[in-house]
Specification:
The complex is a heterodimer of chains A (305) and B (333). Chain A is an all-alpha fold and 305 residues long. Chain A contains 13 helices and two strands; from the N terminus they run E-E-H-H-H-H-H-H-H-H-H-H-H-H-H. Chain A has two domains: 2-39, no CATH class; 64-304, MetI-like (MetI-like fold). Helix content of chain A is 74%, strand content 1%. The longest helix of chain A has 39 residues, at 266-304. Chain B is mainly alpha-helical and 333 residues long. Chain B has one domain: MetI-like fold (Orthogonal Bundle). A two-stranded antiparallel sheet of chain B has the order 1-2. In chain B, strand 1 (74-75) and strand 2 form a beta hairpin. The two termini of chain B are 39 Å apart. The chains are: A mainly alpha (305), B mainly alpha (333). At the A-B interface, strand 1, helix 2, helix 3, helix 5 and helix 6 of A face helix 2, helix 3, helix 4, helix 5 and helix 6 of B.
Amino acid sequence: MATALGPAPGTGADALRRGTTARLRWRTGFDRWVGYLLPLLFLVALVPIAYLVYFVSAKALPGLSWAVLTSSADYQIHDALGVPIVTTFLFMLLATAIAVAIGVLGGVAAAEFLPERSAGWMRMSANMLVGMPSVIIGYFGYFAFVLYFHWGLSFLAGVVTLAFFMSPYVFRTVDLAFSSIPRPIREAAFGSGARPVQYLLRVGTPIAFPQILTGVFLAMAIGVGETAPIVLTVEPGLLVPTGAFQPAVFTTYLIWTGFNQPPGDVAYTLAFQAAFLVIVVVLALNVVVRVVAARYRQRLEGLYQ
Amino acid sequence: MTEPPDPATGTGPEPVPPPAAAPPARRGWLRSLGRAVPYLPAAAPAAIVVAVAITLLLASGFHNFGWDFFGLKFNSDQGVWGVGVLIVGSFLTAVPALVLSMLLGLGIAIASTTYLPRALARVLDPTVDLLAGIPSVVYGIWAFVAVAPWFGRVLNPWLASHLAFVPGFAANSISPSSEGVGLPIAIFVLTLMALPITTLLIRDALRSVPRDLWESGLALGATRWEVVRRVALRHGRRGVWSAAFLGFGRAIGETVAVAMVIGAVDKLPSNAYDSTWTMAAFMFQELDAAFGSSRYLELLAELGLVLLAITFAVNLIGRRLVAHLYAEEVAGL
């Protein structure tokens, strides 16, 4: 068995063990048993995630049909997910657009135009924002947008709060993508007379693009599963919002309101169906992130060897 | 690319001739303005952080609740709000969850870096990262519907009968009506949610230990366990500490999943299986209740400031410890 550390005890260690003390036998034996037992800890991660996906699927799939997904009926009475799905799509479209605008501009500026010291501060605050509990962001949205800006519990307040929540993830990946462009490439571009904007558009962006994309998908995966910022800033609506100040319903809101209802209740059924959809979307986005990241790495290796 | 002049002969590369006509110098203030422009977008995350803090400060109205604010008496009907109950609740869930997820994280990271074949580790590592992708509210509904009843029926009584000698764990105090919600299931969910962070950071810390150190340890006759325990973990101790801080930050700020399984009762738990409340979950669930009571809203905002201060401090320390580590992998945390 070749491990990260080379050959396991067995070849050399066997030779050592002949005619050795009990102490050495205990040490190598302990090491071997640790090697057998520690990998079992992966089950602590594997079993819950498998059980979670299985349980939610088993609860959601029997009742889930195309009719349920597209029905625009009242979700408080009927098993209908059309309105929440379309509304969530609108939420994500607008929030992602704002978060990408903030994150891409900020990340590029921090990586390319700011002195290292200032950029470090900006990175630190992006990290702080990522570490901030979602309920705090929700309260910020509630006090700032809902109350002080008089937007009310509205679609717009939720979109902006969600965008603020997602933006540091985009910021960090974009910053990282542009910071990690090899120096020779940068110098070649500027050395051949490129202006900063030309460098950014013709050289930097093509190289950094896949990584920027992973950042955007990551932010979407985090945004689509978020509950607190939306529940605290938006009034759940029965229709797809057509204006900025209208009520709107986010998919995770259905999970939050239905989880403790009696089984068989519409809210309970909807909660599991919504949870299933969210899992599917989040896992799909995560897979895309991994695939793009892996391809990007291969491309990078091919380019700079 | 310029080469240094050869000191022996004194000849270097051809000196670059100065440009024939220098471009007209822009005016000074315009240039410094141009240099300041990038700060505007780059400061967006910093601006949001500051805006959050200022908004909460304004919302708190700088109201002085006095020392009662941190007291343990809580009764919203009588207007007695001691959030000490919630702070205790937060720590009672976050600290055990952190300890568990650090132990598991250490074990998984050591297994992955030291004992498993590379190919197998490459397959298994992403499964732990997947845990980070599951949304909080999905953990919550799964834990509440699928796992909590099992906790109430099996695990809590088992713990009660086997740990009866530990204060607070005695068997006679499990409330049968709780259906498993309470501290243990909250700790379980938080452990799972903190696990990807702790595992990732510890794994990274162990990976960054120079190969020479591993090899010299092994060459001296140490077993793999002894090298990990005495060399690698010591070398990567900053990473391990940062895992603890960042994992704690995640655990104490976790909102929705905890709100679903903690039981949401504004009192101290009377035993290890009892319901209680945490700061984040309380804020999340009580905003509706605060409607129309400006005093209550101020209290919630001040509670938010306390939670913000705690997570801020914890994250700052944790990030500082791994300041060099701003890698792609960590971008997801």
